[in-house]
Amino acid sequence: QKEVEQNSGPLSVPEGAIASLNCTYSDRGSQSFFWYRQYSGKSPELIMSIYSNGDKEDGRFTAQLNKASQYVSLLIRDSQPSDSATYLCAVNINNAGNMLTFGGGTRLMVKP
Amino acid sequence: KAGVTQTPRYLIKTRGQQVTLSCSPISGHRSVSWYQQTPGQGLQFLFEYFSETQRNKGNFPGRFSGRQFSNSRSEMNVSTLELGDSALYLCASSWGQGAWETQYFGPGTRLLVL
């Protein structure tokens, strides 16, 4: 079992819809979770970090964390074609310094 | 503030050669981590440096090494290059060292080994 798992997609949503991206992780003791967006040929850019159970909102983005279920998700409201990218879930497994373990990424396609 | 910078941006080498990649973190950031990204394996952690000391190391062979200088700039070296080393090498910096630190990525160095 991989330590951080994501559905590779592609996830296709129409413009204006809500995109829901999911991630599960194996280490129950993990404390910090990050979502990065990566456009084709570019490097990952941080969208959000989340550390506590519940929801965290930033503009059109909402991260949700459920440590009991070892599940973290990212919701993108009012999806735009410019949101089309690969979304990477990253977990600090074992709270080991700055070592992030990444999921394989979910490719999101927002169709006009 | 300027972001993380990496040089060179593109590199072509042949098998058996060695390569050195450079990373300058965001001003004030003291931690630098390196990652390798390939289509098959995704993003994988290589190593992390904080205050010139390697703090964590990923599951890569000894051909991969790195160091950090007193100004927090970091270099990674890959010796005896193999075809499978072709990848995007990403450097990320953060202010400190801890599970809650946010890492910011540079643009990467794309290495092609022929």
Quaternary class: heterodimer
The total of beta strands of chain B comes to 11
Largest interface: A-B, 25 and 28 residues
Q: What is the count of helical runs of chain B? A: 0
Mean pLDDT over all positions of chain B? 95
Tell me roughly what share of residues is in helical segments of chain B: under 10%
What does this entry show, briefly?
The complex is a heterodimer of chains A (about 110) and B (about 110). Chain A is mainly beta. Helix content of chain A is about 0%, strand content about 50%.
What report would you give on this structure?
- The complex is a heterodimer of chains A (112) and B (114).
- Chain A is mainly β.
- In chain A, 0% of the residues lie in helices and 52% in strands.
- The radius of gyration of chain A is 13 Å and the shape is globular.
- In chain B, strands 2, 4, 5, 6, 9, 10 and 11 form a seven-stranded mixed beta sheet that branches. Chain B has a four-stranded antiparallel beta sheet with strand order 1-3-8-7, with no helix packed on it.
List the helices and strands and how they pair.
The complex is a heterodimer of chains A (112) and B (114).
Chain A: E1 4-6, E2 11-14, E3 19-25, E4 33-38, E5 45-50, E6 54-58, E7 61-66, E8 71-76, E9 85-91, E10 101-102, E11 106-111
Parallel strand pairs in A: 2-11
Antiparallel strand pairs in A: 1-3, 3-8, 4-5, 4-9, 6-7, 7-8, 9-10, 9-11
Chain B: E1 5-7, E2 10-13, E3 19-24, E4 31-38, E5 42-50, E6 53-57, E7 64-68, E8 74-78, E9 87-94, E10 104-105, E11 109-113
Parallel strand pairs in B: 2-11
Antiparallel strand pairs in B: 1-3, 3-8, 4-5, 4-9, 5-6, 7-8, 9-10, 9-11
